[in-house]
Amino acid sequence: MKDAAAPTPPLALEGLRKTYPSPEGPVEVLRGVSLALAPGESLALTGESGSGKSTLLHLAAGLDAADAGEVRIAGRSLTGLRDAGRARLRRDHVGLVFQQFNLAPSLTVASNIAFQARLAGRADRAWTAALVARLGLAGLERRYPEQLSGGQQQRVAIGRALAARPGLVLADEPTGALDEAASDAVLDLLLELAAETGAALLMVTHSPRLAGRLGGRAHLRAGRLE
Ligand SMILES: Nc1ncnc2c1ncn2[C@@H]1O[C@H](COP(=O)(O)OP(=O)(O)OP(=O)(O)O)[C@@H](O)[C@H]1O
Description:
Layout: E1 11-20, E2 27-37, E3 42-47, H1 53-61, E4 68-73, E5 76-77, H2 83-93, E6 94-97, H3 109-119, H4 125-134, H5 150-162, E7 168-172, H6 180-197, E8 200-204, H7 208-211, E9 216-221, E10 224-225
Parallel strand pairs: 3-8, 3-9, 6-7, 7-8
Antiparallel strand pairs: 1-2, 1-4, 4-5, 9-10
The structure holds adenosine-5'-triphosphate.
GO molecular function: ATP binding; ATP hydrolysis activity; transmembrane transporter activity
Domain ABC transporter: 11-225
Protein name: Putative ABC transport system ATP-binding protein
């Protein structure tokens, strides 16, 4: 019988399959991947280069569609949703952090952080101000991304991802473009703020050292998780 008290997983993946065409023939990247994240859980996704980590994260975010299997975000299936429906689900429930920061170049630090929360109708001035302070960005609010260091830009990206207090944060090599000291600082903040807001975190990383700092680890090999 189903446990009525079990909370809805912020993310559930079931039997995901993905094959890409290539000049050498179809490449079966994911061959039946399932996982569920509980609220507040953090999981590192590791695997060799080309094992499909980014592919899996993109499917989980609804940025791309699987060939088979199901993705559920906050209990809602992406199956059958069009782009706009998937974007809405992402806007309401997911914070994304990428390796290359992906900030809006024409928006200030403050506007970059507030942007997604505004779109989601959950702008909260006090929380945005707290994020700016916690992320060590006080005094830089009116700067543009190009006027920041890489570590500062990634801290802005973390602020943007958490501003709407999503239940799920998906991060693809969030410290991949940073040196070791900046990586540690950025990961500390990401883990702290995710824990504080109760967000589940799925983070792709090449680094066993960084993976070891998350609550658990899943390794992609030959298209499956182990
Ligand atoms: N759009 C695409 N079209 C064709 N093949 C693709 C596409 N995207 C990824 N691939 C292939 O799928 C496989 C998995 O790629 P993916 O980027 O998911 O791996 P990854 O584990 O994130 O790698 P890395 O650690 O190097 O970033 C690779 O063999 C890649 O060449």
